[in-house]
Amino acid sequence: xxxxxxxxxxxxxxxxxxxxxxxxxxxxxxxxxxxxxxxxxxxxxxxxxxxxxxxxxxxxxxxxxxxxxxxxxxxxxxxxxxxxxxxxxxxxxxxxxxxxxxxxxxxxxxxxxxxxxxxxxxxxxxxxxxxxxxxxxxxxxxxxxxxxxxxxxxxxxxxxxxxxxxxxxxxxxxxxxxxxxxxxxxxxxxxxxxxxxxxxxxxxxxxxxxxxxxxxxxxxxxxxxxxxxxxxxxxxxxxxxxxxxxxxxxxxxxxxxxxxxxxxxxxxxxxxxxxxx
Amino acid sequence: xxxxxxxxxxxxxxxxxxxxxxxxxxxxxxxxxxxxxxxxxxxxxxxxxxxxxxxxxxxxxxxxxxxxxxxxxxxxxxxxxxxxxxxxxxxxxxxxxxxxxxxxxxxxxxxxxxxxxxxxxxxxxxxxxxxxxxxxxxxxxxxxxxxxxxxxxxxxxxxxxxxxxxxxxxxxxxxxxxxxxxxxxxxxxxxxxxxxxxxxxxxxxxxxxxxxxxxxxxxxxxxxxxxxxxxxxxxxxxxxxxxxxxxxxxxxxxxxxxxxxxxxxxxxxxxxxxxx
Amino acid sequence: xxxxxxxxxxxxxxxxxxxxxxxxxxxxxxxxxxxxxxxxxxxxxxxxxxxxxxxxxxxxxxxxxxxxxxxxxxxxxxxxxxxxxxxxxxxxxxxxxxxxxxxxxxxxxxxxxxxxxxxxxxxxxxxxxxxxxxxxxxxxxxxxxxxxxxxxxxxxxxxxxxxxxxxxxxxxxxxxxxxxxxxxxxxxxxxxxxxxxxxxxxxxxxxxxxxxxxxxxxxxxxxxxxxxxxxxxxxxxxxxxxxxxxxxxxxxxxxxxxxxxxxxxxxxxxxxx
Lengths: 277, 276, 273
Hints:
The structure holds three protein chains of three kinds.
Chain A: H1 15-22, H2 25-49, H3 61-73, H4 76-108, H5 110-125, H6 132-139, H7 144-167, H8 171-179, H9 184-220, H10 227-236, H11 240-268
Chain B: E1 2-5, E2 8-11, H1 23-47, H2 59-70, H3 73-106, H4 108-123, H5 130-137, H6 141-166, H7 169-177, H8 182-219, H9 225-234, H10 238-266
Antiparallel strand pairs in B: 1-2
Chain C: H1 3-11, E1 16-26, E2 33-44, E3 49-53, H2 60-68, E4 75-80, E5 83-84, E6 92-95, H3 107-117, H4 126-136, H5 152-165, E7 170-174, H6 182-199, E8 202-207, H7 210-216, E9 219-223, E10 230-235, H8 243-248, H9 250-272
Parallel strand pairs in C: 3-8, 3-9, 6-7, 7-8
Antiparallel strand pairs in C: 1-2, 1-4, 4-5, 9-10
């Protein structure tokens, strides 16, 4: 998202552009923060005070805020968030267990790449929403279909990134390892695995975002509990402020999980620190 | 291993993959593996009854259901409904996404102004807004088109913006030195540089638009292939449900393949042909 | 180098001996075969520094890869001390043009890599050897930096230390200064020259720079642009190493430079036809 702060090409003649280009990163971030405050105030005025937009569809910031208070104090979050969290963690955990060995195999073995690869791509190309009714029929109305959709959504990006990492290992590093005496067998732990770590984490970040989408899809279309169920119920009772507050919590969860992934990456792979990603 | 030289890049089979097997051989093996998989599935369900067939029907049952589906006019009208909504939503998303994306790429002032909004919407799992779209736009096509547009517009817009930003100012300056007008800078420098990025965005947009359409149909209304799938699964007609999922796999892969071909035709200089 | 050592060398058998080395590649895109090296014969004596000069794409890097054991010749062989090369070995170390450092390892751990792979970490003094190599290339204080944090010149110093610490008999350098900026290039060229003189290693130094070829090579092997044959071999015959050679015998330096320049220019002209 840093591209919003990039300089970019200019067709010339923009004084504002020149002024912005001269700003430091910190001042740009400050500017954007100030702008967010102004925009929120405008939004409150347009929807909450003047009612130019029907607040049933787009609630004002303050009613989202009070909706947040409502779902927190009524125990709605306490009742629904653990179910979502559980399904997400189980599904993502299963995705890791499946994607990591399969991704390694896909990167290392040509037959697996040529046979499993196309099948996996065909399934991956189909949005996971298509599998939701099957999951519901197979696993009932509990946590099962949600876990399944989280798993199906997260497994492929992790797997394909890992495989790509192995296949794109720098050839001159491999040459160097051979020159300094690495046996074929040692090339895997010493060279291929570490060089694929940044790719694995890129895949994990994609997986986190897609897992949340899968979770939402599964919970929106027919789960009894979970944040998606809460969003549906709030919307159906015209408490859209509460629905937006629930969405906001999901957003916060996703962003935190992406951040956690990045922190783990910095800890596991300190050499990538600060690399443009 | 790859050896770079002035005469180009030479690929040599690395020694861990000594056997050079042609693409056709691999295609034959792939087909054989799929056939073997179907055979095991058939055996497990129909012959040895390891899995109850009302839970997972055998491939033969699914293919019979598929055969019934393709002669069923309701299926075709459902497919037409879904694809029609998707086409309208995607067309809007591409139009708006490319236009706004280029504008954002070219104007830092605009970029700074809308950045917080775009960032907010970008990080929201927008599928969560589906119930609100149904509430606001009703059970008909409008809510689905709206959802397709909402989900599809961001990848197009952001990718187009990224693409515009990759144009180096020195390239623009070079063009102006040779007397290019603003219009021809846009058409001859910025458009070709941006095109491959936009197409990658469109590829993602198609997948997300599909999600929007199908989810919209799950949540409300009585038309479309997603609704048909949900109804079949609800009535536990698993053979029909699997046949419809198969149709969806074909449709998704065909549309992605089509855009890949377009990418190769329109932007043959772009080396990365497999972005998702 | 004194005449005495040169005589001693002449009396011994060559350390590196290439006989009829031919390499053909299948070009994946066109399905045609490309001849990278054609029937190369070359002897390198112990303690000698041979520079290999030629335009890009002339096959000089392929030749080095054959000596390193990374590329198997289609026909012909390379012998090290009489034994035929069948793969990489601890007697040869390579310095790569793109450094080829492991990005996930610190400077110290990168330099250690060779010892680790050859299972020499049980030797009690390996830490000292690694540290000595790091000091020798002037990287003291950067032991725990990652390659990403170093400039190109410094990264190549790590590559040099990694090569020296493995204590090979032969150093193979593949345009080691090709990716380094011009100023660093000159400084490092002289330092490499000093290191070669100090350690007395046998060196095969691939370059496309005429100055590097003259200032570091005891002999200069000039490659034809196509199809990878040796055009001529010249003995430089100047004392010293690096830019002190220039000072030692300015006349010979200029003579060689003009000669090589015209040879390469003719080759380039022939190649573009």
